[in-house]
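Example 9 (inverse folding). The structure is encoded as follows.
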């Protein structure tokens, strides 16, 4: 079976737009949420890790005249970045596919109102058109799929993209996720009491919920044969394995024993053909919610054994917030950068480490001691996915 390689990346987040801004931000390990610029955000905690105003792409319209929301504009921006990064100019449209994960899509279009009390847009607008917009941009005539498995959506999207290549359906797949501010989404989490009033602080004893972030990531996935044929200039990593599972436990709460998230991790390792000892780092789901972080910590301890206290975790959400349906893709992108650079960036310092979460979160950059990085993404409905990124030559 041919390897699936990652040859191009594009990203936008609260750290700014572009790979340099993202990697620099990862290494600075400093950020904070801010109050949303929405006068109608009548909720207790109206803050999030927002994309800087200067980096938000200008409004654009699809060819049929339908306005595109901010999530689609984010997705188009990072896709352009990834395609340029991969040097992918000439590609067979019939062998090119798109898989994008998003939780809310362009729901923000339905939340925009003029000062006269009427909707900003006077026609019905499709909400989950993000993948279609990307497909139109790159001229993809192969499969075009939108995944909406809540906060694991784009983790599943990256896995599905690899499946399309391995099954022979495509040679190139643009995979990723996009999420923008939604008043309804943030309001609902406020009603659930699941928003931390300060920052997103996974594995901290004082954590009180998650804090959302805006962002998007795009990954160009190619078969190794296709990458060789066109002499791809850069290979960040290979997507060596993926594992899926479902808790079948509760609509929102994670299964407390972590059996199914452990199952997903083990399946990803098995598909990659490696053992836990070959993992140099884990990018956890780690949302900052009390139960999730505790269960994931225990599951990692069960997977890694005594090495769990030494194996570094890179807690991305403590830096850019919980980007909802885009979180898995952003984590996968960060893992690809870690593999490529051979370095685990410093974590945002915890104020009060939770003794129930016995994990290693180094506050200084460390060398990647191993050939692979695991990415975890979990979601409401018990949807779990784990990915393994590995050095292309490993």
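The amino acid assigned to each position is listed next.
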């Amino acid at each position: 079976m041919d390897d699936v390689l990652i040859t191009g990346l594009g990203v936008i987040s609260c750290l700014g737009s572009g790979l340099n801004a993202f990697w620099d931000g990862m290494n600075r390990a400093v950020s904070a949420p801010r109050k949303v610029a929405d006068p109608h955000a009548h909720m207790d905690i109206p803050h999030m890790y927002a994309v800087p105003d200067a980096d938000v792409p200008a409004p654009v319209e699809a060819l049929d005249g339908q306005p595109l929301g901010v999530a689609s504009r984010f997705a188009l921006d990072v896709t352009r970045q990834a395609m340029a990064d991969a040097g992918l100019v000439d590609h067979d449209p019939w062998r090119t596919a798109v898989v994008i994960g998003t939780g809310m899509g362009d729901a923000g279009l339905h939340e925009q109102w003029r000062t006269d009390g009427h909707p900003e847009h006077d026609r019905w607008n499709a909400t989950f058109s993000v993948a279609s917009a990307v497909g139109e941009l790159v001229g993809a005539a192969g499969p075009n799929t939108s995944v909406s498995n809540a906060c694991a959506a784009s983790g599943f999207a990256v896995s599905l993209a690899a499946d399309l290549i391995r099954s022979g359906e495509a040679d190139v797949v643009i995979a990723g996720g996009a999420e923008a501010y939604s008043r309804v989404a943030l309001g609902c989490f406020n009603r659930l009491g699941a928003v931390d009033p300060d920052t997103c602080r996974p594995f901290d004893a004082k954590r009180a919920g998650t804090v959302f972030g805006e962002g998007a990531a795009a990954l160009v996935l190619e078969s190794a044969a296709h990458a060789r044929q066109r002499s791809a200039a850069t290979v960040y990593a290979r997507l060596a394995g993926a594992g899926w599972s479902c808790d079948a436990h509760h609509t929102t709460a994670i299964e407390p024993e972590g059996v199914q998230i452990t199952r997903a991790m083990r399946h990803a390792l098995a598909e990659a053909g490696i053992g836990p000892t070959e993992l140099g780092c884990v990018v956890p789901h780690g949302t900052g919610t009390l139960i999730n972080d505790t269960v994931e910590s225990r599951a990692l301890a069960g997977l890694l054994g005594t090495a769990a206290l030494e194996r570094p975790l890179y807690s991305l959400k403590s830096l850019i917030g919980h980007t909802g349906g885009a979180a898995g893709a952003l984590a996968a992108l960060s893992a690809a950068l870690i593999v490529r650079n051979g370095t685990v960036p410093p974590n945002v310092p915890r104020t009060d480490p939770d003794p129930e979460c016995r994990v290693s979160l180094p506050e200084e950059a460390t060398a990647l001691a191993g050939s692979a990085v695991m990415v975890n993404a979990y979601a409401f409905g018990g949807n779990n996915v784990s990915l393994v990124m590995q050095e292309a030559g490993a």
